[in-house]
């Protein structure tokens, strides 16, 4: 069962703002995000498409290119400030201490190289170890992510593997250098539910066993409800609700989170139409005044014309809503 982590944070993000300076105006993709994840803990970062989840992840690993820029806030990795850190330091951290897993494993894998070559290269990029030791580590890591016959799979090219196997190899590459933090951006979305469930189980076990901190980015609240210790719900560049996973899913306080929970299919809703959140996500170039969710919200009042501050909702949630439900 997921437990509340008591360890010191591996990552602490405060007031992060990442904006894109486009011809059409300033896109505030991330606008004042606070996140915290401890060793062995899994944080689910959930929200609809375009809410700023990936840009939050890319900001942490220093992969924001023009016209985007981090314009405010702090990203502390084991206490070290990464906002403003040099590219050399960020390169040292990427792939070694902080790893990223993408929705498309081919963002990680090279189609023309065998798995063993790619894995040994990934080790050698950060560490001087002999070829035999590197290969043994590669094989053991493939076994860790549930790849059968890992010795044989080392000799495969990516195109010889199924989608699920390719994603497991990409996850294994992320794990090779024993990172302290993994940012996983929708890595199981394209896979069928059985493979997805297996991978989620293995990832959760790995985090617990190795003390790795993980941010799991997804649009699917159902996926993280069983995986994450804590959940942060993102809407239009801001975290609108965060807290222990069970609290967020079973006692949502923000009307947007309520809407996401209501759209999770359950046995009870089998065969009937699921409730959808009315309306569309707003353009980040033309955000409504005050709370960005206001035009879609059944609880909206004149108070919502002012941006809500984050408030604590017992036992341990933080919610940005004038009408937060206890
Ligand atoms: N290069 C860019 N130029 C301008 N705007 C950008 C750029 N990259 C991202 N954005 C803006 O940032 C917003 C957040 O994007 P992001 O990819 O983080 O969303 P997301 O929540 O991860 O959605 P998805 O699940 O679809 O990936 C987008 O709505 C987009 O408007």
Automatic annotation (TrEMBL):
<feature type="domain" description="ABC transporter">
    <location>
        <begin position="13"/>
        <end position="261"/>
    </location>
</feature>
<keyword id="KW-0813">Transport</keyword>
<dbReference type="InterPro" id="IPR003439">
    <property type="entry name" value="ABC_transporter-like_ATP-bd"/>
</dbReference>
<dbReference type="InterPro" id="IPR003593">
    <property type="entry name" value="AAA+_ATPase"/>
</dbReference>
<dbReference type="Pfam" id="PF08352">
    <property type="entry name" value="oligo_HPY"/>
</dbReference>
<keyword id="KW-0547">Nucleotide-binding</keyword>
<dbReference type="InterPro" id="IPR017871">
    <property type="entry name" value="ABC_transporter-like_CS"/>
</dbReference>
<keyword id="KW-0472">Membrane</keyword>
<dbReference type="InterPro" id="IPR027417">
    <property type="entry name" value="P-loop_NTPase"/>
</dbReference>
<dbReference type="InterPro" id="IPR050388">
    <property type="entry name" value="ABC_Ni/Peptide_Import"/>
</dbReference>
<protein>
    <submittedName>
        <fullName>ABC transporter ATP-binding protein</fullName>
    </submittedName>
</protein>
<keyword id="KW-1003">Cell membrane</keyword>
<keyword id="KW-0067">ATP-binding</keyword>
<dbReference type="GO" id="GO:0005524">
    <property type="term" value="F:ATP binding"/>
</dbReference>
<dbReference type="InterPro" id="IPR013563">
    <property type="entry name" value="Oligopep_ABC_C"/>
</dbReference>
<dbReference type="Pfam" id="PF00005">
    <property type="entry name" value="ABC_tran"/>
</dbReference>
<comment type="similarity">
    <text>Belongs to the ABC transporter superfamily.</text>
</comment>
